[in-house]
């Protein structure tokens, strides 16, 4: 069973509060429990708090409900040490009492998607109305329309079980082929819904899991990314090269040029914009070596090659599409 909320338990914003004396009892009671070990002074923990609470509310409304918990590791050192907590926040997922690392994101959507995948079927069967409602709410969703058989179904279900794309997307399926018309399909098929750029998209590639996973992965980021916590994984952890325009201006011609180059070179390299003074953007600027004094700056990083970093030496204010294209070409040809 998933567990039943006890009136004597302590809850804050829908999150179960655990300590040295209550931790083991909760792990035994709840079949599935995501636990955050945090420190009150931790900045990353403070940033996670509203996302964690929002995810708890959404997961608690499911049938059956899923639950999130938290432990103040500075006050409950025994349980923190026993579970080898080394930094903050540390999140572990407990499945029937068995601990595993939490590998999802730090936003409401990514937490909900990760937990849903871990505690339910890879793809949820829905009717057409539910399909429309859920895909409009989710950040990323893949939908299958047709019979639960055949090569495309096998590819879709295989993608839903894939450990990488399965955590990025929600997966839904229905036998109502006519529903696919609302997603741009004329027959059985797969559609991709997202909250950015063009949506929905229709899949037309090979009928294999590998091809569908590659398509979904490539479509999971915007053509032009505004750097944030959500895009640490597709750049740094996935090892994808990215060309980054550091700027804190608005309405400049070079920004329009960069945006157009991103459209022209879609799929060639990730295009990113970032400031250097706030939050994770300031850390990116520090890492690449860009300060407010040398804005605007055009840079390229390659996490797959020892985190190589390159600086475009031209005048960014006079940037042209041809210059951006040549820069990317020179990078791919090993000329930078």
How would you sum up this structure, described in words?
The strands form 3 sheets. Strands 1-2-4-3-5-6 form a 6-stranded mixed beta sheet, sandwiched between helices. A 5-stranded mixed beta sheet has the order 7-9-8-10-11, with helices on both faces. The chain has a 5-stranded mixed beta sheet with strand order 12-14-13-15-16, with helices on both faces. A hairpin with a 6-residue loop joins β10 (189-194) and β11 (201-202). The model has no long low-confidence stretch (mean pLDDT 92). With 336 residues, it is α/β, with parallel strands linked by helices. The protein is globular, with a radius of gyration of 22 Å. The protein folds into 3 domains: 11-118, Glutaredoxin, CATH 3.40.30.10; 121-218, Glutaredoxin (3-Layer(aba) Sandwich), CATH 3.40.30; 224-332, Glutaredoxin, CATH 3.40.30. The protein has helices spanning 23-29, 43-60, 77-82, 108-119, 128-137, 151-161, 165-168, 209-218, 232-237, 253-264, 279-288, 321-332; strands at residues 11-12, 15-18, 32-38, 67-72, 90-95, 98-101, 124-125, 140-145, 170-174, 189-194, 201-202, 224-226, 242-246, 270-274, 297-302, 308-311. α2 (43-60) packs across α4 (108-119), α6 packs across α8 (209-218) and α10 crosses α12 (321-332).
């Amino acid at each position: 069973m998933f567990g039943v909320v006890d009136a004597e338990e302590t809850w804050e914003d829908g999150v179960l509060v655990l300590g040295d004396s209550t931790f083991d009892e909760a792990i035994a009671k709840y079949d599935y429990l995501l636990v955050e070990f945090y420190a009150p002074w931790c900045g990353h923990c403070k940033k996670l708090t509203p996302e964690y609470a929002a995810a708890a509310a959404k997961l608690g409304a499911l049938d059956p409900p899923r639950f999130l918990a938290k432990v103040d590791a500075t006050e409950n050192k025994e349980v923190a040490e026993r579970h080898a907590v080394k930094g903050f926040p540390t999140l572990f997922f407990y499945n029937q009492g068995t601990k595993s690392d939490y590998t999802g994101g730090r936003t409401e959507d990514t937490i909900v998607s990760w937990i849903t995948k871990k505690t339910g079927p890879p793809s949820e069967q829905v009717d057409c109305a539910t399909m429309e409602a859920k895909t409009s709410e989710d950040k990323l969703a893949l939908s299958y329309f047709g019979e639960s058989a055949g090569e495309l179904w096998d590819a879709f279900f295989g993608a839903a079980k894939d450990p990488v794309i399965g955590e990025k997307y929600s997966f839904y399926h229905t036998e109502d082929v006519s529903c696919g018309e609302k997603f741009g399909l004329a027959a059985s098929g797969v559609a991709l819904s997202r909250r950015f750029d063009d949506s929905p998209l229709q899949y037309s590639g090979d009928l294999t899991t590998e091809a569908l996973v590659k398509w979904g992965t490539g479509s999971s980021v915007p053509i032009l990314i505004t750097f944030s916590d959500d895009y640490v994984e597709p750049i740094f952890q996935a090892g994808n090269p990215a060309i980054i325009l550091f700027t804190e201006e608005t309405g400049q011609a070079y920004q329009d040029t960069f945006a157009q180059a991103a459209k022209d070179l879609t799929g060639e390299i990730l295009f990113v914009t970032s400031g250097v003074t706030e939050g994770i953007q300031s850390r990116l600027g520090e890492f690449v070596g860009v300060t407010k004094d040398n804005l605007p700056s055009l840079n390229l990083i390659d996490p797959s090659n020892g985190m190589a970093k390159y600086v475009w030496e031209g005048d960014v204010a006079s940037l042209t599409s041809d210059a951006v294209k040549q820069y990317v070409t020179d990078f791919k040809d090993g000329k930078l």
